[in-house]
Amino acid sequence: MTLQPTISAVTDRVIERSRSSRTRYLDLIARERDSGVDRPNLSCGNLAHGFAASGEDKPVIRDGKAMNIGIVTAYNDMLSAHQPYGRYPDQMKIWAREAGITAQVAGGVPAMCDGVTQGQRGMELSLFSRDTIALSTAVALSHGMFEGAALLGICDKIVPGLLIGALRFGHLPTILVPAGPMPSGLANKEKQRVRQLYAEGKVGRAELLEAESASYHGAGTCTFYGTANSNQMMMEVMGLHIPGAAFVNPGTKLRQELTRKAVHRLAEIGWDGGDYRPLGQCVDEKAIVNAAVGLLATGGSTNHVIHLPAIARAAGILIDWDDIDRLSAAVPLIARVYPNGSGDVNHFQAAGGMAYTISTLLDGGLLHRDLMTVSTGDLTEYAREPMLDGDALAWADAPANSLDETMLRSYDAPFLPDGGMRLVTGNLGRATFKTSAVDPARWTIEAAVRIFEDQDQVAAAFKAGELDRDVVVVVRFQGPRANGMPELHKLTPLLGVLQDKGFKVALVTDGRMSGASGKVPAAIHVTPEAMGGGPLSRLRDGDVVRLDAVAGCLEVRLAPIVFEGRAPAAPPIAGSGTGRELFGFMRVGANDAEQGASAMLAGADL
């Protein structure tokens, strides 16, 4: 089918805007391929250090005639999604030998768990952990020992960080290797019910912990459709996985064979063969637009309106929130995965998963088919699902129809006609409103505001009954330059309780909400942020704010001369402890959320 006109127009807009920066990027990776640091250019001393402890692979690495894969791993055994990676490097070295090549662990990157740090001080490090991961990836690949890379990571900031770092080595063929979601546990609606009861004081901590433990219960990615699983979806529609690798459970034979195939495929797409597929050419403007389309079509995480521009900039590509807003108006919502529906990613996989999703979006002209993927062909390869034929890996065509239309539908019979991620603008700035998770009756609210400067203040006011009214809760000084832009997911149960009591409630913040944000209307990532005198810093308790997703409006109902004449509120003192002070330089140097909220990218003029 012909590409849908809005998809085509937005892609053309991104290509034109990126023409100069993309040319510079492609020139960079061409130079790195031709004259950068690689094994033939290393001195004997350099090279000897590089293979000194490589055991049985030492003769092959020393000879220099076979590809050597650099494994960059985000393994730790505290993070359930990444615990399975512990055994991967040893297995991958064996599979590399099967293909006549070698593999070494190039380096490790940090992998923090937002589930553990949610609502805690450590969440102020969360967003900047992405840039730390990107820097760590660059350090790992800087040794010049590798002709390809395998990136082992899944969760929130980890995949974007790995990808940003690896894109600066875009001459290397690179495959992202997931480990899969944990099996389903406690039903998500029951977990949500217990959380709200706890917020109301109707159950205790023991009951809450029991519910949480039954939900997050084993190895693998958390099963709700938040940032981690949105990462996996994006890697599929960008063609950076082995097809169908996203949502296969860990510890299965199929998962093992998909990882084995990733290693073998890297051997086939190296620069000495006839199918050279460098990462920097795979991640082009069409791939970035595909990622945005996939995000919108599946109701994915709002965190990616920050991460996707950052990933794009690392490849010389400029995409902004206007582009995403235009795409959202044209892309139908075809998936309902918790928190936008009742089932989790395992149910999504059973309903047809990424194979059916890509198949129907291609049929509707909503995805670019003609990508350079890491597989053998274009994106058509990803409209197939992996399976085992005996012990051998094989693929079958996606089902002709969704196997569960309460969870997954075709492009021409969607849940909603648009992707449900709206840009709202006005005299308070620019922000994102995820409408796909919110009842349309709640898309517009106008009410007096109550101003807060951290989540704990909101919780205290809630417990005191001070928010039992129609209210727009404003939590400011939560942007990247203020405190590192923590997620405010802790507020969802509280505001949900108020909404269930019949009050009209909304959240406005320059912080992030979460990939797991749900039913409460929220204008998040407000840009410019309050720090530095942004409009939110001039709001006062009692001001009337209108948030209207239908009209795309975010404004305070005050005359310009009154509002703009106010002095900005003084920012709170930056927190210390839990390592927060070490990230001060990242806060000071960060660009705004629409550009990726990154001091690293700003400092590199990307």
TrEMBL record:
The cofactor binding remark recorded in the entry reads:
Binds 1 [4Fe-4S] cluster.
For molecular function, the Gene Ontology terms on record are: 4 iron, 4 sulfur cluster binding; metal ion binding; phosphogluconate dehydratase activity
Task: Tell me what this protein is called.
Answer: Phosphogluconate dehydratase
Question: Residues that bind [4Fe-4S] cluster, according to the entry?
Answer: C155, C222
Species source reads Sphingobium indicum
Which family would the database say this protein is a member of? Belongs to the IlvD/Edd family.
**Cofactor (UniProt):** [4Fe-4S] cluster
Give the EC number: 4.2.1.12
The record lists the catalysed reaction(s) as: 6-phospho-D-gluconate = 2-dehydro-3-deoxy-6-phospho-D-gluconate + H2O
One Gene Ontology cellular component annotation?
Answer: cytosol
